[in-house]
Please model this.
Amino acid sequence: MRDLIEKADVLHEALPYIRRFRGATFVVKYGGHAMVDPALRDGFARDITLMKYVGLNPVVVHGGGPQIDQTLASMGVVSERIDGLRVTDEKTMGVVEMVLGGKVNQEIVSLICHHGGRAVGLSGKDDGFLRGERVLRMKTKAGREVDPGRVGRIVEVRTELLERLVTGGFIPVVAPIAVDDLGGSLNVNADTVAGHVAAALSAEKLVVMTDIEGVRGAGGEMIPSLSLADVERLRRDGVISGGMIPKVQCALDALSAGVNKAHIIDGRTKHACLLEIFTDRGVGTEIVA
Model:
């Protein structure tokens, strides 16, 4: 009986958040270990389905770096990363499209549908809704400038397709591939895509799933809440670096465009999204304007 009462208490705790966020759009960047561990993958699909059924409108933007690395390794190809962005030649771009736009995307869609959700997989090439341009030069830590190939930046998100899917009761699952003016594919960091999609949709929240508890301070402590000034100070001091840079930058982009809050959470925690959205305490690091 005690366990049943505790479950009822959890539902009561969630009620104000369900009431407050009903009809709101949440963009969730799905990546890291949560995409690899079978139990976490299944749990994520159920959590996203639950969010839709209680009246929220989740939009999933997924990564797939480990899956791409595995496929490239099997082909004997080694790719370089600069500040979390993969240097992408034409051959690598073909693998990125195959893995992200094909295998990974459809696996996520299938899992959500298996749990009763109505998911639709797409990339930025569908209806050309993610418009991008090439990043022509990037600088390595050693100061050397390189051409990153088919790496892109987002210049426009055309929201009509996403909005039609959401209002039609579907959960969009977006692979981070954009299209340039010539119809060519561009590899865009999934965190960056999530930030731009959240901004374009005027989302209530942007939730970025990672493989750490959140943003850490200079002493390694987890920081529960950050202002924009805090973020700039940590970046200037080199505390925020490497793969955390695009995650924090996508949060800043979303906040500057009117998104209310951004959250960086540990995707290795079971039901991390639900804990962040529907509980008083939450998990991870929130970034507020």
